[in-house]
Amino acid sequence: MTMPMLETYPAEINLDRAKLAATIDALIACAEACTACADACLSESSVAELTKCVRTNMDCADICGATARVVSRHTGYDANISRTLLEACVMACKSCGDECGSHAGMHEHCRICAEACRACEAACRDLLAAMG
Amino acid sequence: MTMPMLETYPAEINLDRAKLAATIDALIACAEACTACADACLSESSVAELTKCVRTNMDCADICGATARVVSRHTGYDANISRTLLEACVMACKSCGDECGSHAGMHEHCRICAEACRACEAACRDLLAAMG
Amino acid sequence: MTMPMLETYPAEINLDRAKLAATIDALIACAEACTACADACLSESSVAELTKCVRTNMDCADICGATARVVSRHTGYDANISRTLLEACVMACKSCGDECGSHAGMHEHCRICAEACRACEAACRDLLAAMG
Amino acid sequence: MTMPMLETYPAEINLDRAKLAATIDALIACAEACTACADACLSESSVAELTKCVRTNMDCADICGATARVVSRHTGYDANISRTLLEACVMACKSCGDECGSHAGMHEHCRICAEACRACEAACRDLLAAMG
Hints:
Four copies of one chain form a homotetramer. Chain A has helices at residues 2-7, 17-42, 51-72, 79-102, 108-131. Chain A has five helices and no strands. Chains in contact: A-B, A-C, A-D, B-C, B-D, C-D.
């Protein structure tokens, strides 16, 4: 419902609404995938080798979740905050996508999570480029 | 990606995975709609009459967001926590759905948000029923 | 600053402000202790035996965090939401306090976290009693 | 309990533990002050003139909350994420401190919130400097 909600926004938004909606959806999907992947890692017998993955998952979930909320508010007055937060998000998604990607062959949940991270990283970069 | 992630979970889940995935997706969609609706209300010239709506939106967003994270972990050992949290969620969604619904004719964002709240309320009730 | 903030609140609050401030502070301290304890558990060589602890920690952190935000808003109109959420909090704190308490002799971070959980559980019960 | 928890951490932390604990405490206090200030603003009769304040409060609360969680995990492997997130936090605290500060003479809750924002901004800058 992200796009329908944005379409009804009663004021100006200084960004392409479709691009913003796509980014919000990618952030939300990534946060959920990371939360689920952390829990799945905790259920693996090899959990001792997956602690770095659990942590990057949790960091990425927290950062994507906060970023989704912040960019859902069209505060406008200080684009630098959104921009820096999106940059932190790009880094967290890159880091988590790499970590999960490195054992994607072993754990199917890591493979799917890596995909969500990469899609989110791309969406954040895209929105950053559109912000100029 | 909620359902694909759940399908790869490496341990038992004491719940129907499709029903759980549908609830998580409804919780996430509702949290996002409420965050966006609160911000849209703040942009209305009639904001002074919408403060109750802003607050129920924020409460509902926080409760749905936390519930999504908790039910995404398949901790199992204490279903009472998930159950009580889902009950709080049902109440928050009911309250926010009613509030947003009451001025759905005036504000399109409230109409969409009320829909998201009702869908989430129904999904939480459904999961609660399945938990027995 | 929780109490000074509550003292400046420009409208009525249907609760003892000192009791409410004490509960908010206990919720915040518990959320932080649980986040830190989950991470400390992930750094233990015996992490494979601590996965249940990591999960209860994360659930408790999420529930306490959301509850702190919700009771910091003085929505009033529907005390049932706050009440049910506080009940979920009591259960989560009890569960996490028991789990952390069970290996408090082994891990100092679990001992401190169990204390934070018990203090938070008591504060939530106290506020629930005051809500009638 | 932030410092006692950090003192029991079973692995190395590449940062001064007292400085890290002080920053986490400042982040948590700022998030709480901003959540409470947003709600107090919604209770003012002049709410229509305070919508920017409500929004900066909410952004600042979300960013500080996520940052507190991330820096409470001593992941270490990628300090760039923490650094960028702390930079977003500095900006959010600066923005919210300025906004709240601008009507501190009118609203006592804004005065206290501005203080919390400035203390948090200083703590984050201090930690950033220590990270090198």
